[in-house]
């Protein structure tokens, strides 16, 4: 019998999505899950993605054969080039495998670290971090601890606390860094601050796992957003990297991502890739095909890629404009000055609203956001932003 099994609590992010879907009130607004919406509140299939889908349908040779264990070679090569840049790809030995989006890449990284990492098997996560991070590493038998990241007083980066915690971690620990558009805070280090972080990490020979779920979403430029990853690699660091094409190509449900790791020689790369295959084969055999064909087609075609870059700018531009409008409405209409909302970057604003406020917003105003006060700005549009600002002001002043 399974009578001993107790119900699990809903997922802090995806559980809210379910609550939103079950709400029958016409005013309901979903600011929970980080998924892009257009100004009509609808999911947006990028025109470059539509075009790649059409090209696939026109291809007479299309089939549904198994993918190689590490995924489609062309897709993987182009995904890695997008992250590290062509020059670094040519200068380094990079083992890589297609993954089930960013989560799957992190899960493979966790298995890898559990099996092969010779340092301290403890993963340091920023406080706060994406709510799924701890569980991904725990599932592979790794422990997690936190380093200070967000300063609740300034609502900015707690650089001093972060550097202290990384300095006091046991040498050769594992450090997870968000490459850009930190989730949930929207607070990223400046380039100078990244330099200080790099110095401490190098000094203690910590191993870095970059989670890059938002390349192109923070600034609209895939180059600028990948800068921290490239900077660590240029400094000689053997980073691991989890890439996702969920947000930047809007391929959420297709689970398209890539796991990669820098190796020291071609021989090492070959050995690592062969062991990655063993990990993946036992977990899910091989990755799905459709989404990676779409992403691979865009990355391989210079015209489609240029079009995609424009669409990325369009998405990040709309998010930015909503961010500014929310700030202005709160300030001008409600005399609430929340400068952090306009200073933060990426898909989210970390409003500072508490769990009680968030519960009240869901119960009384039908506005859904995670209980840490994070909102997915993409859920805002010209038709609902004023209602959201009014509701935030009402609960904040309560
Ligand atoms: C989020 O943080 O909302 C996204 O990364 C979606 C997810 O899977 O949680």
From TrEMBL:
Note: In eukaryotes there are cytoplasmic, mitochondrial and chloroplastic isozymes.
Quaternary structure (record): Homodimer.
Catalysis performed (reactions): L-aspartate + 2-oxoglutarate = oxaloacetate + L-glutamate
One of the GO BP terms on file: amino acid metabolic process
Family, per entry: Belongs to the class-I pyridoxal-phosphate-dependent aminotransferase family.
InterPro entries, alphabetized: Aminotransferase_I/II_large, Asp_trans, NHTrfase_class1_PyrdxlP-BS, PyrdxlP-dep_Trfase, PyrdxlP-dep_Trfase_major, PyrdxlP-dep_Trfase_small
Keyword Transferase: yes
Domain Aminotransferase class I/classII large: 27-391
Keywords tagged on the record: Aminotransferase, Pyridoxal phosphate, Transferase
Cofactor(s) listed: pyridoxal 5'-phosphate
EC number: 2.6.1.1
Source superkingdom: Eukaryota
Gene Ontology molecular functions: L-aspartate:2-oxoglutarate aminotransferase activity; pyridoxal phosphate binding
Any Gene Ontology CC annotation: mitochondrion
Record's protein name: Aspartate aminotransferase
Annotated signal sequence range: none
PANTHER family associated with the record: ASPARTATE AMINOTRANSFERASE, ASPARTATE AMINOTRANSFERASE, MITOCHONDRIAL
